[in-house]
Amino acid sequence: MRGFWPLFKRELLVFYATPLAWVLAFAFLTVQGLHFYALLASIASSPEVSDQSPLQAFFGETVILYFVQFMLVIPPLTMRLFAEERGRGTIELLLSAPITPLALVLSKYLAALLTYVLLWFPTLFYVFVIARTGYVDPAVVATSYLGVFLAGAALLAVGTLCSALVRSQFLALILTAFVILLFFVGGLFTFLTKDGTVAHAVATHLSLWTHMMDFSSGIIDSRHVVFYSSATIVPLYVTTRIVDGWRWA
Amino acid sequence: MLLTAEKLEKRYGAKVALAGIDVQVAAGEVLGFLGPNGAGKSTTMRILSGVIGADGGRVVIDGHDLADDPIAAKAALGYLPEAVPLYPELRVVEYLAFRAELKGVLRKYRVSYIEEAMQKARVTDVAYAPIGTLSKGYRQRVGLADALVAKPKLLLLDEPTAGLDPAQIVEVREVLRGLGPEHGVLLSTHILSEVEAVADRAIVIDHGKVVAAAAVTELRAADPAFLIGVSSTDVALALLKPFAGRVVATVAEGGAVRVALVAGSAEGRDGVAEEVVAAFVGGGVGVRSVVPERPRLEEVFLALTRSRAEQP
Asked: How much is the ipTM here?
């Protein structure tokens, strides 16, 4: 993995030395804050006692907001990873350096993943707020954040692949957003297909909503973990092959 | 040999970019790599640096096969691409620190290596300037500092003075002149005076093939020329038309015609001179003087690439 650290550090520097990460953090936390406020206001004003905890609702019930968040955060985080290097021509500097394609791909991907994790970090404040006024199940908190992490890791891997496929950052952004949208539409088929059919089973397997409902209930279903792990590893492997293949283009 | 490239081949679809090129660079040698635009110079440089792969042939750098052991081979080379891609948002020292670490320079040597590279490339005065604010000349030298920063044994420099103004060219050329003893250098350029100024040996390629390979002095000696002071340069040039293919004629200063024998000509300079003078006199052109001259590399180059292009 020679070359990993300098590339990883440089990617982080680019994220935080430019307005990108800060603008994303502002937008992300504003939407999350409004989301959390609306949820609490809704629960507080409801005459009936909900059978769901605020955290379950935050991470599970209102999952459609996660697609907004993914669309907002993931394409901008990944669009420049390879498309910018190819557009600028700086990819020549990297390909002529004594580093492996795997180090190149993982350094860029993990820098984006760390930035994604850091974006979520301030939302722990909401857990603190709820814990001050009521009971918070630590297991639910842990599995909820695990779900957010796994889904983000997979979609970031897809975004990394999209960035390696095209020279234009804008095209990479559109392509990544399109794939995320496909996940969303695929998940909707859970409601449009009959239970017990193959289509329903496939839609359920792909549905981020279904996955997050489990994670936000404190359930770690190994099928979900395998799904997200596969959806992370396969795109990263393909990206590594693409980077290696540029020598033969 | 520091660099041995054998029978390099590269195709882009049906177009043959390289058709079996051999390049060898010894330690401490500056090898000029000449050719007109589109001859295959940059393709060769990109193959040698590992950026693209060859369709055929083999590259060995400092004893390491580029295909079998790319990490070790690339660790021995510094590459300056033609377009000099850089990260404009970084300061010069930040960029060089990143590149030094990427190339595996140990932390304890990094500062001294960066300072040395900046001094050699003459960019110390802009060390803390963002690269995006630098002039093209400075950016070119930052690229050169990047190629030098890990103290590689082999330097691959692709058109290092392209697009620079005359003053910047002189500055970069001064830098290049000092590189030879410590590095093997492959200097790709279409500026022949650059090769004459800094290279020991040169190879000339055209249409993806090597058309000449020799010491610069040998290349020049191979195709002698002479200056003939005449009463009318226009008439003299017209009288030289029957000599096409044997000599390259140009108008020189002071009412003279410069006549250079084409590359590879087996004819003796003196014999051709006598024929030319006889043609001038017969054509009514007064001849004031005949002065032998060693040719400029430009003419050798033109003659080599032109004769190649004329082949079916």
From this structure: 0.84
Residues forming beta bridges with residue B91, ordered by sequence position = B130
Write the CA distances from A194 to A157, A160, A186, A223, integer angstroms: 31, 35, 14, 21
Please compute the mean of the pLDDT values over residues A226-233 and round it to a whole number.
95
B61 beta partners: B3, B64
Q: Return the closest-CA partner of residue A122 out of A183, A193, A32.
A: A32
Q: Which of B46, B71, B89 sits opposite A98 (nearest CB)?
A: B71
A12-25 per-position pLDDT tens digit: 988 888 888 899 99
- Of residues A7, A14, A88, nearest to B85 (C-beta): A88
Question: Would the CB atoms of A100 and B71 count as touching at under 8 Å?
Answer: yes
Could you tell me the CA-to-CA distances from B299 to A214, B260, B295, B307 in Å, in that order? Answer: 78, 7, 7, 12
Question: How far apart are alpha carbons A14 and B94 in whole angstroms?
Answer: 12
Residue B310: the pLDDT is 52
Determine contact, residues B215/B199, Cβ cutoff 8 Å.
no
| Residue in A6, A95, A98 closest to B51 by CB | A95
What are the φ and ψ backbone dihedral angles of B186, each rounded to 5 degrees?
-110, 115
Handedness of CA B117, B120, B125, B126 (dihedral sign): negative
Domain regions of chain A by residue span: 4-42+51-248
d(CA B212, CA B202): 8
Residue ranges and CATH numbers for the domains of chain B are 3-218 (3.40.50.300), 224-294 (3.30.70.100)
- Those residues of chain B that have pLDDT short of 70 are 180, 219-223, 263-269, 294-300, 302-312
Instruction: Say yes or no for a CB contact (<8 Å) between B74 and A247.
Output: no
Task: Note the pLDDT tens digit of each residue in B59-101.
Answer: 999 999 999 999 999 999 999 998 899 999 899 999 999 999 9
Residue A64 pLDDT more than 70? no
